[in-house]
Amino acid sequence: xxxxxxxxxxxxxxxxxxxxxxxxxxxxxxxxxxxxxxxxxxxxxxxxxxxxxxxxxxxxxxxxxxxxxxxxxxxxxxxxxxxxxxxxxxxxxxxxxxxxxxxxxxxxxxxxxxxxxxxxxxxxxxxxxxxxxxxxxxxxxxxxxxxxxxxxxxxxxxxxxxxxxxxxxxxxxxxxxxxxxxxxxxxxxxxxxxxxxxxxxxxxxxxxxxxxxxxxxxxxxxxxxxxxxxxxxxxxxxxxxxxxxxxxxxxxxxxxxxxxxxxxxxxxxxxxxxxxxxxxxxxxxxxxxxxxx
Length: 293
Known about the structure:
mainly beta; two-stranded antiparallel ribbon; about 10% helix; elongated
């Protein structure tokens, strides 16, 4: 009797799934197993989802610099001395929030018969980038001096990125992205050294507005249909305005973002009609959505 009951229950779930899957949207259906599995492998997620949803991204930042110190010979009022400039990166933080969009229309461009763009997202947020620079001076009489300045700059940031996902398992994929970030500096440290005196080197500071083309790469994890966790990194690769490695004091700093992205697609409100088969175009788009993910 229990076997017959399970069969009817599974058949009912299957019919519901056919009804919901006919909606014209990408459907990242994932069979969720639990301890109370039935003969068909457990309950299915039959929620009806929109093709866009919330994205939240955040994590630490780090500014890489040159790997070696720079020795300089100078002559100040007839008194020669040597000094060595040593920049170092430090940890900061960033956060942005926005939306992610999964296209459902027939793609104009494909890659190996797959969508060229799996999804695109945007976010607005704040970056805090940190670093420091020190100078060690050796005078002709043998005396030495150590001087140091720190930078801790804050930026309002607007980012947009197009992504291509390459699945290698049902729940895991390689996430590649190319995008643009527009950053405006609203906070900066004092524009001088704060320890041991001022540096003898010439200082220059990048403009407040920075626009860059960046590259993202990460490991995508599908938690369930429409919900993803994507740890990865973002690096600037080309400047549009400013520099991909902005200048501060006497050194350049290359900011790397170590990020964790959370995406959750919005759920559609339930329709009064429980089962809508849709048109032939709807079914084709739904098939493309499923194949793309």
